[in-house]
Amino acid sequence: MINEMKFNEDVALMCGLKEAVLASYLWDLISRDDDVIYRYGKLWTRISQRSLSVHLPFLSERAISRAAKKLEKEGVIAIDEYNGSKFDRTYSYAFTEFGGEVMSTSYV
Known about the structure:
This protein is an alpha+beta fold. It has one domain: Arc Repressor Mutant, subunit A. Helix content is 46%, strand content 17%. The protein has helices at 9-15, 17-32, 49-55, 61-73, 97-103, and strands at residues 37-39, 42-47, 77-80, 91-95. Helix 2 (17-32) crosses helix 4 (61-73) and helix 3 (49-55) packs across helix 4 (61-73). The longest helix is centred in the N-terminal third of the chain and has 16 residues, at 17-32.
């Protein structure tokens, strides 16, 4: 069995490989997830960094946190907390208009 991870080459060139892998995972999650939330004109998915590190075992929670912050800084994604409890630190992720355009290009 071959495990493959596809990523967007433009995001990798702009932000880095870890960021491209995370962006591609979030893009696929938003595309296929029934639990997406529509807010502020964007589709948001809610997932913890711990869950992301389980699905992307080659990235630590800290690496995921840094990658997400870099993607946000570069304008690819938006990050917010839509939580009912102040103790819940699970983030929601959405692609910006720019990020959606970049992710719509071909994967490598």
